Write the structure tokens for this entry.
Amino acid sequence: MAQKLSKKAKAAKKKRDLKAANSRRREKMRAENQRKRRKAKKKGKNIKGKDYDHTKKKFVSTKANNYERLQIVLFSTVMTILATVVVSWAQSGFYTDFGI
């Protein structure tokens, strides 16, 4: 589902995404992916609907690969929020008011 962004925000996101997609790390991963796909096709393997997973070092379904990425993003988001809450709580002197 597409994000609902203003024109300015959409342009900024496009610029950020392009920079990330063309980073040295992503270029290396893309090149590795192409080499692996060509090699697998040459060997006669059916890799239709699969992506090369750089962490598992094998081809997995696109669905599984996207789900794994989603899990990583969700985990990092939750950890960031938790860290923010803990820092805020520490700054308040670990004050708790349970209404007792």
In short: Residues 55 and 65 are 10 Å apart (CA to CA). The chain is about 65% helix and 10% strand. The chain has a mean pLDDT of 87.
